[in-house]
Design brief:
alpha/beta; 283 residues; Nitrilase/N-carbamoyl-D-aminoacid amidohydrolase
Length: 283
């Protein structure tokens, strides 16, 4: 089946030190999403938390329980503590599953740590980058996870797409300020260049902030909102799969609003070492 219903949640987020309150809110959002027929729920980066080290709570049990009870996939954010004394942690996106068990996990890979997150108004920890790009099979499509400003690193989304991801969750942190327009543009670009559905949302810390809840397909943005709330969006992967199977032709632009073949026909793997040549030094 190529269609599924998605709940995109752009919450009014409780800031630290009250961020544990986000867990109960997240559970309620999942319950409401399931009642609305959703098969996936998407939360922002680090939501429901925690945002800081040392971590004072872990939302994993609550997210696993509600995903299992409600029969939905839940993409949520948290930390994986590494050293409480140093305040170091991986920044995680997890995918809780409707059949329970250990959630699928992505550890943010870009940029190299620890220059982001330490000493922020919301986040405060020494970020340690991960090194893996897992994808996750679901009955609705193959899922990849990435995070926030990794939208500026096209290698991340391309790696997920080449590993089969048709649905890429790319949730973000907070108000994008002057980056808002370019950020929106890049979310759609990641969908277009990877022939995938790209899904994003962010935390709103106050009513003055401008959100970016968005669902992009290769050919169009099918949903977006700057407001807080939960939004139900019906997604059809049929067109994406059709574009992935096509070969691009000189006349393709008559029927396609995105380039087919970019994940296969256009690839030149024999040149990739030349793109980023590592100069050898004598020892």
């Amino acid at each position: 089946m190529s269609t599924f219903r998605l709940a995109v949640v752009q919450p009014m987020t409780h800031m630290p030190p009250d961020d544990e309150k986000n867990v109960a809110d997240a559970v309620k959002y999942v319950e409401d999403a399931a009642a609305g027929g959703a098969e996936f729920v998407a939360f922002p980066e680090s939501y429901p938390g925690p945002f800081r080290m040392p971590a004072t709570f872990d939302p994993t049990e609550a997210m696993n329980e509600v995903a299992n009870r409600c029969g939905v996939y839940v993409q949520y954010g948290t930390l994986e503590p590494l050293d409480n004394e140093k305040g170091s942690a991986h920044n995680l996106l997890n995918l809780a599953r409707p059949n329970g068990g250990t959630p699928g996990t992505y550890r943010r890979t870009h940029p190299p740590g620890p220059w982001i997150y330490r000493g922020g108004e919301v986040w405060d920890f020494d970020y340690v980058a991960g090194n893996e790009y897992p994808t996750f099979e679901t009955p609705h499509g193959q899922v990849g996870l990435a995070m926030c400003s990794e939208v500026y690193m096209p290698e991340v989304s391309r790696t997920l797409a080449l590993r089969g991801a048709e649905i890429i969750f790319l949730p973000a942190g907070v108000d994008k300020r002057k980056l808002w327009a370019t950020w929106r543009n890049l979310l759609w670009a990641r969908a277009t260049e990877n022939l995938a559905v790209v899904i994003s949302t962010q935390n709103l810390m106050n009513k003055e902030q401008r959100g970016m809840a968005l669902v992009a397909t290769p050919e169009e943005i099918i949903f977006e909102s700057t407001q807080s709330g939960m939004f139900l969006v019906d997604v059809d992967l049929g067109r994406i799969r059709e574009l992935r199977e096509q070969k691009d032709e000189p006349t393709s632009s008559r029927n396609n609003a995105a380039k087919a073949g970019v994940l296969s026909q256009w690839q030149r793997p024999e040149l990739y070492d030349e793109f980023f040549r590592q100069e050898k030094t004598e020892s």
